[in-house]
Amino acid sequence: MAVNGATKPKSTLGEPVCLLQSDALLQYILETSVHPREPDSLKALREVSATHPWSTMATSAHAGQFLNMLLKLVNAKNTMEIGVFTGYSLLATALALPDDGKILAIDTDRVTYEMGLPIIEKAGVAHKIEFREDLAMPILDQMIADKKYHGTFDFIFVDADKDNYINYHKRIIDLVKVGGLIGYDNTLWLGSVVAPPDAPMKPHVQYYKDFVLEFNKALAVDSRIEICMLPLGDGMTLCRRIN
What is the DSSP-derived secondary structure letter of residue 202? Predict the structure, then answer.
Protein backbone atom coordinates (compact mmCIF):
# COMPACT_ATOMS: atom_id res chain seq x y z
CA MET A 1 0.00 0.00 0.00
CA ALA A 2 1.29 3.47 -0.78
CA VAL A 3 2.72 5.74 1.87
CA ASN A 4 -0.31 8.05 1.74
CA GLY A 5 -2.70 5.14 2.35
CA ALA A 6 -3.72 3.40 5.55
CA THR A 7 -1.40 0.92 7.24
CA LYS A 8 -2.16 -2.75 7.55
CA PRO A 9 -1.51 -5.07 10.51
CA LYS A 10 0.97 -7.89 10.20
CA SER A 11 0.10 -11.53 10.48
CA THR A 12 1.89 -13.34 13.27
CA LEU A 13 4.33 -14.61 10.63
CA GLY A 14 5.65 -11.12 10.01
CA GLU A 15 4.25 -11.10 6.48
CA PRO A 16 2.04 -8.25 5.25
CA VAL A 17 -1.60 -8.90 6.05
CA CYS A 18 -3.19 -12.02 4.60
CA LEU A 19 -6.87 -12.90 4.92
CA LEU A 20 -6.17 -16.60 5.34
CA GLN A 21 -7.47 -17.55 8.78
CA SER A 22 -4.64 -19.98 9.42
CA ASP A 23 -1.03 -18.84 9.83
CA ALA A 24 -0.04 -22.48 9.36
CA LEU A 25 -1.70 -22.50 5.93
CA LEU A 26 0.03 -19.27 4.93
CA GLN A 27 3.33 -20.69 6.14
CA TYR A 28 2.72 -23.77 4.00
CA ILE A 29 2.11 -21.63 0.91
CA LEU A 30 5.21 -19.54 1.55
CA GLU A 31 7.49 -22.49 2.28
CA THR A 32 6.18 -24.71 -0.53
CA SER A 33 5.81 -22.45 -3.53
CA VAL A 34 6.86 -18.88 -2.75
CA HIS A 35 10.10 -18.53 -0.81
CA PRO A 36 11.94 -21.41 -2.56
CA ARG A 37 11.35 -19.69 -5.93
CA GLU A 38 11.68 -16.09 -4.79
CA PRO A 39 14.58 -14.40 -6.62
CA ASP A 40 17.42 -13.29 -4.36
CA SER A 41 16.73 -9.65 -5.20
CA LEU A 42 13.10 -9.90 -4.11
CA LYS A 43 14.10 -11.71 -0.94
CA ALA A 44 16.61 -8.96 -0.15
CA LEU A 45 13.99 -6.27 -0.78
CA ARG A 46 11.45 -8.11 1.36
CA GLU A 47 13.97 -8.19 4.20
CA VAL A 48 14.76 -4.49 3.82
CA SER A 49 11.04 -3.68 3.78
CA ALA A 50 10.58 -5.59 7.04
CA THR A 51 12.85 -3.07 8.81
CA HIS A 52 10.56 -0.14 7.95
CA PRO A 53 8.10 0.99 10.68
CA TRP A 54 5.29 0.66 8.11
CA SER A 55 6.51 -2.68 6.78
CA THR A 56 2.97 -4.03 6.53
CA MET A 57 2.40 -1.71 3.59
CA ALA A 58 4.69 -3.82 1.41
CA THR A 59 3.21 -6.23 -1.11
CA SER A 60 3.22 -9.78 0.25
CA ALA A 61 5.60 -12.30 -1.30
CA HIS A 62 2.81 -14.51 -2.64
CA ALA A 63 1.04 -11.51 -4.21
CA GLY A 64 4.33 -10.46 -5.79
CA GLN A 65 4.77 -13.94 -7.21
CA PHE A 66 1.28 -13.78 -8.69
CA LEU A 67 1.88 -10.38 -10.31
CA ASN A 68 5.18 -11.55 -11.77
CA MET A 69 3.56 -14.58 -13.41
CA LEU A 70 0.53 -12.60 -14.57
CA LEU A 71 2.68 -10.04 -16.37
CA LYS A 72 4.59 -12.78 -18.14
CA LEU A 73 1.36 -14.45 -19.22
CA VAL A 74 0.05 -11.27 -20.85
CA ASN A 75 3.45 -10.29 -22.28
CA ALA A 76 3.24 -6.88 -20.61
CA LYS A 77 5.74 -4.29 -21.74
CA ASN A 78 4.42 -0.86 -20.74
CA THR A 79 3.09 -0.60 -17.17
CA MET A 80 2.30 1.86 -14.40
CA GLU A 81 2.35 1.55 -10.62
CA ILE A 82 0.55 4.02 -8.36
CA GLY A 83 1.89 3.59 -4.84
CA VAL A 84 5.41 2.19 -4.61
CA PHE A 85 6.55 2.12 -0.96
CA THR A 86 9.92 0.28 -0.88
CA GLY A 87 9.34 -1.26 -4.29
CA TYR A 88 8.63 -4.97 -3.76
CA SER A 89 5.79 -5.14 -6.29
CA LEU A 90 7.75 -2.73 -8.51
CA LEU A 91 10.72 -5.10 -8.58
CA ALA A 92 8.45 -8.11 -9.15
CA THR A 93 7.04 -6.24 -12.14
CA ALA A 94 10.42 -5.13 -13.48
CA LEU A 95 11.76 -8.69 -13.35
CA ALA A 96 8.78 -9.88 -15.40
CA LEU A 97 9.09 -7.29 -18.18
CA PRO A 98 11.37 -7.64 -21.22
CA ASP A 99 14.62 -5.68 -21.21
CA ASP A 100 12.98 -2.79 -23.09
CA GLY A 101 9.90 -2.80 -20.85
CA LYS A 102 8.89 0.34 -18.98
CA ILE A 103 7.25 1.14 -15.64
CA LEU A 104 5.98 4.57 -14.67
CA ALA A 105 6.17 4.44 -10.87
CA ILE A 106 4.41 7.18 -8.88
CA ASP A 107 4.66 7.82 -5.14
CA THR A 108 4.90 10.86 -2.89
CA ASP A 109 7.81 9.40 -0.87
CA ARG A 110 11.16 9.07 -2.65
CA VAL A 111 13.00 8.31 0.61
CA THR A 112 11.11 5.07 1.14
CA TYR A 113 11.49 4.12 -2.52
CA GLU A 114 15.24 4.66 -2.24
CA MET A 115 15.41 2.06 0.55
CA GLY A 116 14.90 -0.58 -2.11
CA LEU A 117 16.58 1.20 -5.02
CA PRO A 118 20.09 -0.25 -4.48
CA ILE A 119 18.58 -3.74 -4.69
CA ILE A 120 16.64 -2.83 -7.83
CA GLU A 121 19.83 -1.46 -9.37
CA LYS A 122 21.81 -4.56 -8.42
CA ALA A 123 19.10 -6.70 -10.05
CA GLY A 124 19.81 -4.89 -13.32
CA VAL A 125 16.29 -3.59 -13.91
CA ALA A 126 16.46 0.04 -12.76
CA HIS A 127 16.60 1.21 -16.39
CA LYS A 128 13.01 -0.01 -16.82
CA ILE A 129 11.69 2.33 -14.10
CA GLU A 130 10.75 5.99 -14.32
CA PHE A 131 10.06 7.11 -10.76
CA ARG A 132 7.95 10.24 -10.27
CA GLU A 133 7.80 11.72 -6.77
CA ASP A 134 4.41 13.37 -6.88
CA LEU A 135 0.71 12.93 -6.32
CA ALA A 136 -0.71 10.58 -8.92
CA MET A 137 -3.79 12.60 -9.82
CA PRO A 138 -2.03 15.56 -11.51
CA ILE A 139 0.14 13.17 -13.52
CA LEU A 140 -2.88 11.16 -14.62
CA ASP A 141 -4.76 14.32 -15.57
CA GLN A 142 -1.83 15.43 -17.73
CA MET A 143 -1.74 12.06 -19.44
CA ILE A 144 -5.47 12.14 -20.07
CA ALA A 145 -5.17 15.63 -21.58
CA ASP A 146 -2.36 14.41 -23.84
CA LYS A 147 -4.28 11.84 -25.84
CA LYS A 148 -1.11 10.08 -27.02
CA TYR A 149 -1.14 8.11 -23.75
CA HIS A 150 -4.66 6.76 -24.21
CA GLY A 151 -4.73 2.98 -24.52
CA THR A 152 -0.95 2.61 -24.22
CA PHE A 153 -0.55 0.68 -20.97
CA ASP A 154 -0.63 -3.11 -20.78
CA PHE A 155 -0.98 -3.19 -17.00
CA ILE A 156 -1.57 -0.67 -14.21
CA PHE A 157 -1.25 -1.57 -10.53
CA VAL A 158 -2.83 0.61 -7.85
CA ASP A 159 -1.85 0.22 -4.20
CA ALA A 160 -2.41 3.70 -2.84
CA ASP A 161 -4.88 5.90 -0.97
CA LYS A 162 -8.20 4.07 -0.92
CA ASP A 163 -10.28 7.23 -0.81
CA ASN A 164 -8.98 8.02 -4.30
CA TYR A 165 -9.41 4.60 -5.91
CA ILE A 166 -12.57 5.63 -7.73
CA ASN A 167 -10.85 8.78 -9.00
CA TYR A 168 -7.86 6.78 -10.20
CA HIS A 169 -10.16 4.36 -11.99
CA LYS A 170 -11.99 7.15 -13.82
CA ARG A 171 -8.67 8.16 -15.34
CA ILE A 172 -6.65 5.02 -15.87
CA ILE A 173 -9.50 3.20 -17.62
CA ASP A 174 -8.66 5.40 -20.62
CA LEU A 175 -4.91 4.84 -20.29
CA VAL A 176 -4.93 1.03 -20.25
CA LYS A 177 -5.38 -0.62 -23.64
CA VAL A 178 -8.44 -2.66 -24.58
CA GLY A 179 -7.53 -6.14 -23.39
CA GLY A 180 -5.14 -4.67 -20.82
CA LEU A 181 -5.28 -5.22 -17.07
CA ILE A 182 -5.66 -3.07 -13.96
CA GLY A 183 -4.91 -4.46 -10.50
CA TYR A 184 -6.30 -2.85 -7.35
CA ASP A 185 -4.85 -3.95 -4.02
CA ASN A 186 -6.59 -4.06 -0.60
CA THR A 187 -10.11 -4.44 -2.00
CA LEU A 188 -11.18 -6.65 0.91
CA TRP A 189 -9.69 -4.15 3.36
CA LEU A 190 -8.80 -6.34 6.32
CA GLY A 191 -12.11 -8.18 5.95
CA SER A 192 -13.96 -5.05 7.07
CA VAL A 193 -16.12 -5.10 3.93
CA VAL A 194 -18.28 -7.78 5.56
CA ALA A 195 -18.05 -6.52 9.13
CA PRO A 196 -21.33 -5.51 10.82
CA PRO A 197 -21.86 -1.74 11.23
CA ASP A 198 -21.23 -1.87 14.97
CA ALA A 199 -18.06 -3.99 14.74
CA PRO A 200 -15.12 -2.42 16.60
CA MET A 201 -12.26 -1.42 14.30
CA LYS A 202 -9.39 1.00 14.24
CA PRO A 203 -10.25 4.52 13.03
CA HIS A 204 -8.27 4.25 9.79
CA VAL A 205 -9.92 0.92 8.95
CA GLN A 206 -13.36 2.41 9.58
CA TYR A 207 -12.55 5.50 7.53
CA TYR A 208 -11.36 3.70 4.42
CA LYS A 209 -13.92 0.89 4.67
CA ASP A 210 -16.72 2.97 3.13
CA PHE A 211 -14.51 4.11 0.26
CA VAL A 212 -13.52 0.51 -0.49
CA LEU A 213 -17.15 -0.63 -0.38
CA GLU A 214 -18.24 2.09 -2.79
CA PHE A 215 -15.31 1.38 -5.08
CA ASN A 216 -16.09 -2.33 -5.20
CA LYS A 217 -19.73 -1.55 -6.05
CA ALA A 218 -18.62 0.77 -8.85
CA LEU A 219 -16.36 -1.87 -10.40
CA ALA A 220 -19.12 -4.47 -10.22
CA VAL A 221 -21.37 -2.43 -12.54
CA ASP A 222 -18.70 -0.97 -14.83
CA SER A 223 -19.53 -2.36 -18.29
CA ARG A 224 -16.13 -1.37 -19.67
CA ILE A 225 -14.35 -4.09 -17.72
CA GLU A 226 -14.40 -7.72 -16.68
CA ILE A 227 -13.46 -8.22 -13.03
CA CYS A 228 -12.11 -10.92 -10.77
CA MET A 229 -11.76 -10.34 -7.03
CA LEU A 230 -9.08 -12.52 -5.49
CA PRO A 231 -8.65 -13.36 -1.77
CA LEU A 232 -4.92 -12.76 -2.17
CA GLY A 233 -3.14 -10.87 0.59
CA ASP A 234 -5.62 -8.18 1.64
CA GLY A 235 -7.77 -8.72 -1.44
CA MET A 236 -6.83 -7.88 -5.02
CA THR A 237 -9.24 -7.07 -7.84
CA LEU A 238 -8.17 -7.59 -11.43
CA CYS A 239 -9.94 -5.66 -14.16
CA ARG A 240 -9.66 -6.38 -17.87
CA ARG A 241 -10.72 -3.55 -20.13
CA ILE A 242 -13.08 -4.83 -22.81
CA ASN A 243 -14.18 -1.58 -24.49
Answer: -
